[in-house]
Amino acid sequence: MEQIAPQLFNGLILGAFYAIVAIGLSLIMNLTGTINMAHGAFLTLAGYLAFTLVSHGTSFWVALILAPLMTVAVGILVERTMIRPLYGRLPIYGLLLTFGLSLIAEEVFHLTWGANGVPFQPPAILAGTVPLGFMQFPAYRLFIAFVLIIAISALVYFLRRTKFGLQLRAAVQDSEMIAALGTNTQVLYMVNFGLGIFLAGVAGVLAAGMLGLNPTTGNALLLPAFVAVIIGGMGSLLGSIVGGLLIGVVFSMVTLYFPAFNEVSIYILMALVLMIRPRGLFGEEGLFG
Amino acid sequence: MIASNRGVVVSCLLLVVFAALPFVNIGLEISTITEVFLIGIAAMSVNLLVGYTGINAFGNAAFFGLGAYGALLSIKYFHTDFVLSIVAGVALAFLGGVVLGPFLLRRRGIYFSLLTIALGQVFYFIAYRFTDVTGGEDGMTVIRPLVGFLNYKVDDHAFYYVSLAALALALGTFWIVVRSPFGKTLQAIRQNELRVRYLGLNTDRFIFVALIVSATLAGLGGTLFGLLLSNVSPLLLDWHQSGDFVLMTVIGGAGTIWGPMIGALIFVIGKDVLSSVTPLWQIYIGALFIACVLGFPKGILGSIFAAFEARRVVPPAPSSAAQAVVVEPHG
After folding, report:
1. What angle do CA B325, B330, B331 make, to 5 degrees?
2. Could you read off the pLDDT of A51-104 as tens digits, one per residue?
3. Nearest Cα to B309, choosing from B253, B246, B248, B250?
């Protein structure tokens, strides 16, 4: 019994990773109809950049912000040059393109940082454990939970309370109309893509210290994030968050009792949700087919 | 579209040429050409969905792998002969289509793609994790069985003709499906599903059948591929494999009958050559993805047909087969 509480917490934190990747995917998908198969690669890139920054003497705290920003710069460059021409075309082209990008990225990671993964230590202050009353919990994981909650709250605030967020949500509804009303939708697309990548980047730096850093770190998070989007419902950020946390917990719990079924279990959950509520838990009917 | 009769003549001629290939030295291993055929059949199965029905399937490796696993599992556990193991593989892929279909049908557009990726991956994890049955990460290796009632050993040479027959079967099926009222309805769904619905047709049912045909075709390719190598591994089921199939379709020309086969030829040979000359081949493959999508969206055959189309007389009606697939922007 005493394993359950820590495992539940671990599941929530893993779920928070899924959630933040899923939110980034959703943002990009909702606005531009592009499934970003390279999302995991961007996540990994941020992890590696943070690793390189820290090993050259930058502090972890600076790297936590700087590495995602550098990744965003790469992301926006990619979006402007390669993904933008595909807006309005069949989604299969966006899929193929970002898929190709992730193949290239994986090989570049191999070449630059080696195939076997690199050690990435969180700072000493986060190394110990924290007593939670009923158990000891690693400080770094609590810190991850804290940062992910902040990041998600900031995003929700940005989308709900700022003029730019309002334009972004309006563009999801009808981008032609908002363009006709004088908003530069290209800027929206760019910033939106950057936002998604930034979230992935933060997740990447944090994940590097917990899940390890190797060329496929990001891709390991990508598929569960797809499942989170499907379970939560397309078009709903809340859905992505709930979906992510849910599969994180299910994954951890099943790992505890039936380890062979842990990966399959989240797909069974997805199948159940699809049977009972095809639009996903929080999805709106009619949005994105 | 080029006159269909001419297409049939060309197709038959090509098959005859293929039948003669093993007697001529063209510098390729016979098993490599066999591989091209089988991978090409799987790419054709993607084409039925992506090129003709206009739905964004990105998970056909699941059916390809199911076919391969079905054949090898039946050999390992039931000692089936060559013919029966083919039946087992194709049947398993068919079943996979029947089971997954109802889930996939729930959504369209990018959501459909997401579903195909996610649901396809289930089989990958099953093969990967249930080591006792499937051999896990290492997969399984078997000895290719004899044809039971003839006591005949299928060597690589004979296997080539089995694969060629499968290719002819796939092409024939494709040709009939595409020209049938059923196939015309699929193409109408590609252009405007809502309108087809308004005409009173249950589009879900049409897409379901298309999915099953596609799954079975992919399974046929996969079954023979597994038997060709006498080996399977979870990689056959992975979404990377699915992506490769889609790319082959786009390289050759989505919505053309021979396009995926040309794509498979370029892809398989290209990968063979690249991986023998450079360890960085994955970068080149990735670049190929990007170059095709950005620079060559109609694919090889698609572009050729479009050029023919442009030279013909007015009015410039959009060609149904070789048109670049463009949809309304989202929103």
Report:
1. 155
2. 999 989 888 899 999 999 999 999 999 999 999 888 888 888 888 999 999 999
3. B253
Q: Any chain B CB within 8 A of the CB of A284?
A: no
Please tell me if residue A220 touches chain B, with a CB cutoff of 8 Å: no
pLDDT on residue B330: 44
Inter-chain CB proximity B114 and A82 less than 8 Å: no
ipTM here: 0.85
Omega into B22 within 30° of 0, i.e. cis? no
Is A99 near chain B, with CB under 8 Å?
yes
CB atoms within 10 A of CB B83: 16
Using an 8 Å CB-CB cutoff, list chain A residues near B288.
Answer: 100
Q: How confident is the model at residue B323 (pLDDT cuts 50, 70, 90)?
A: very low
Alpha carbon B195 to chain centroid distance? 28
Nearest CA in chain B to A92: B56
- Backbone phi, psi, residue A138, to 5°: -60, 130
Residue A285 has pLDDT above 80, yes or no: no
Chain A positions touching B246 (Cβ under 8 A) are 92, 95-96
- Name residues whose C-beta falls within 8 Å of residue B96's C-beta, 6 or more positions apart in sequence: B62, B63, B66, B123, B215, B219
